[in-house]
Amino acid sequence: MDTKEKTIINFKKAQSSLGKIVKMVEDDKYCIDIMQQNLAVIGLLKSAHQMLMEGHLHSCFQQAISTKNEKKKRLMTEEILQVTKLANK
Question: Which of 11, 27, 55, 63 has the fewest CB atoms in 10 Å of its CB?
Fold first, then answer.
């Protein structure tokens, strides 16, 4: 199984779990149980994000850095810094 497939699986699991979490809240389930499920979804999303970033660094970013186009290199670096900053909030 390649990284793209693993990433999609994580997103689909997170999507499914979110529906279950909404149902748990609607049904007034125990708060700790809801929070644990929420953390599991956050973990899936963080894992998917990491896989996307690694894929990007090994493909798009690597191609941009290997060119002589300084503007493209700078732009690509700024994009990665911006996404990393958002991920760390």
Answer: 27
